[in-house]
Amino acid sequence: MSELALFNQELPDYLKDVKLDDATRALVGNGGSKRISLRGGKFRMVVNGEEILTSNNDSLNVVIVEAARDVSRTFYAGAYNPKADATPPDCWSNTGVAPDASIEQPQHHNCAECPQNIKGSASGGGRACRHFRRLAVVLADDVGGDIYQLTLASKSIFGKGDLTHMPFEQYAKYVGSQGYNLNTLSTEMRFDTDSDTAKLFFKPLKFLSKDQWGVAKRQGETPAAKKAIEMSVAKTSSDAPKLSAPKPAPQAKAVEAEIAEPVKRVEKKAAEPTAKKDLKAIMGDWSTDEA
Q1: CA–CA separation, 206 vs 223, rounded Å?
Q2: Where are the domains of the chain?
């Protein structure tokens, strides 16, 4: 089965309390890592670095059980090469405020004023230092099942949409402004088919039942959920060659005086949805007592 359908359906009663046996646990390894990749505009289940399932659907329904409090940042000095082995970033921050203390040669002492944070510092005209936010999610039809890490890039985090097509930051603020937590409802994640990169929109679907909500809260308190929202960077060998940050191209002397020093751009705060429509109305007549 190539779809997520098998693990995205109601679990039979006789299997709900079954734990991993010794054979399966030995094959899986010690916990491992589970994440949802958005590569190629598809939802891909990745376990221990191996892709095990790919969905052909544009949407996936999840429950967000935990989320990183801050937007993290990563900077790579070299150009991306999909054929090369994965390497750690040259500079990174878990909080988005200052480089991590482990970095030997940080690009700047704070992220806001870093030259890699200026629009145009990347070859494509964007920012060389990228924004990310990590979520811990479970499948909406299996709230007590595996916890997956979902990493959102800036296009899925910031911006403004309508009430059924919201970037994550706008969506989270909207749900909170209505007096609800993210773990009280199921959320639809849908790819923006007009985007040339993997960009997600979010919208609420229905409230969880009382039992499901209790499970979702417990899931958010587990070590797996806490691990999913943390950014950790493995160190490479000290003998590995280090890439230096790209240097700006030299300018002709005749125009040097006309080029202003880079300044910090003030980010516009993501606007709230303009329509103050009640969240329950958005989700229709779903009952909170459904199993």
Answers
A1: 27
A2: 30-231
Q: Which of 49-58, 137-146, 159-168, 275-284 has the lowest mean pLDDT?
A: 275-284
Q: Are 231 and 134 in contact (CB under 8 A)?
A: yes
Cβ burial 259-278 (10 Å sphere, 16+ → b, else e):
eeeeeeeeeeebeebeeeee
Does an H or E element contain 282, and which? helix 279-283
Taking only the tens place, the pLDDT of each residue in 16-55 is 667 666 566 555 544 568 999 999 999 999 998 899 999 9
| Burial state string for 225-239 with b = 16 or more CB within 10 A and e = fewer than 16 | bebbbebeeeeeeee
What single letter denotes the amino acid at residue 189?
M
Q: How far is CA 172 from CA 82, 162, 195, 220, in A?
A: 32, 13, 21, 16
| Residue 177, number of CB atoms within 10 A of its CB | 12
d(CA 19, CA 64): 23
- Confidence class of residue 92 from pLDDT cuts 50, 70 and 90? confident
DSSP-assigned beta bridge partners for residue 132 = 72, 153
Measured CA angle at 7 (ends 148, 29), to 5 deg: 55
Cα 171 to the center of its chain, rounded Å:
14
More confident residue, 233 or 79: 79
Per-residue model confidence as pLDDT tens digits over 173-210? 999 999 999 999 999 999 999 999 999 999 999 999 99
Q: In the chain, what is the straight-line distance between the N-terminal and C-terminal CA atoms, in Å?
A: 26
DSSP H/E element including 173? helix 168-177
- Higher pLDDT residue, 127 or 192? 192
Structure-token pair, residue 196: 């040339």
Strand, coil or helix: 137: strand
- Categorize the per-residue pLDDT at 144 as very low, low, confident or very high, splitting at 50, 70 and 90: very high
